[in-house]
Amino acid sequence: MRLRSLFAVFGVLLAFCASGALAAPDKASKQAEIRKATHATLEKFYKAQPALKNEVRDAPGYAVFTTYGLSFLVGGSGGSGLAHERRAGKITYMSMAQATAGLHAGIGEREILIVFKTDKAFKEFVDKGWDVGGGAAMAGGAEGKTAGGGAGEQFLATANYFTLTKSGIEVGGVVSGTKFWKDKDLN
């Protein structure tokens, strides 16, 4: 339990560092950066899997994140993004952090798309945050091209979870925890 807490703290610190490195002079500028990055990320996903465009269009909501991470046995990543409620057109700005432990080494930038299957699942994600676990991974990529697990898909009961490795490489198996939450400064 103590090790898990250490990983969580490391992941949160890394998230703050990542968001600090990308900090805009003001709230509106940062929000605009995230919206622009979200649009670009969605286009990459649509190019890689054209059917996703209809899935996102028909979903009650979706979330998009860009993450940055580093690991060698123990690691973490962090990033920012937004959740978009389709019916209301409401955007909620969010942050995320991930802590990992295991026989794993890597560094990279990754893009995440979560497409929600129900209004309830979307609302819980935004209001309560979300915790997810991990497993084995091997991936590499550059400039939106991915090989290996970096083009991952997870089909969960309440959402479909897609990843693209933007740049970097990773190999190994890990136990991980990822936490998503509302960004208090941007909402």
Description of the structure:
This protein has 187 residues and is α+β, with helices and mostly antiparallel strands. It has one domain (2-182). It is built from four helices and seven strands; from the N terminus they run H-H-H-E-E-H-E-E-E-E-E. Strands 1, 2, 3, 4, 5, 6 and 7 form a seven-stranded antiparallel sheet that branches. Strand 6 (153-155) and strand 7 form a beta hairpin. The chain is globular, with a radius of gyration of 15 Å.
Please specify the SSE layout and strand pairing.
Layout: H1 2-21, H2 27-48, H3 51-58, E1 61-85, E2 90-116, H4 119-128, E3 130-133, E4 136-142, E5 145-148, E6 153-155, E7 159-182
